[in-house]
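dude i think i finally got it to work??
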Amino acid sequence: MALGPPSTDFLIAQGPASSGVPQSFADPADRSRLTPAALEALRGLARAWSLTSQEAADLLGVSISTWERMRGEAWRQTLSQDQFMRVSALVGIFKGLHLLFADDMADRWVRLRNSGKLFMNRTPLEAMHEGGIPGMLEIRHHVDALRGGL
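look at this
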């Protein structure tokens, strides 16, 4: 069964209606409000990419036990700014891949070795794990560039 990209509406939502300011992850109240949607998107991405608990935890920057609670919807805390940045980058990569590839390649791509300079014969998942947030953002820009989005 093909899964569509997780919703990214939470990433582009506007801040308080009276402010007219784009959504920021700095305000704890905003993060609290947006956390459920971000976790739903991350769960969908983890299923589509067939991430192990260890891989998902590493990408989000949490322990395996914390990821398991998040995955099982038992986690009732708020994501940090760092975690929102990670989710934003991952969902951007996911969505870009689904715009770029019309088949299951979009979900397989993260596990394929890549000899390009950015990847140095690693898989994109390995590069994101080793590169942290900067690596995730570089890969997101790479995917955007591949699809002509830069």
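The CA atoms of residues 69 and 75 lie 5 Å apart.
im so relieved honestly
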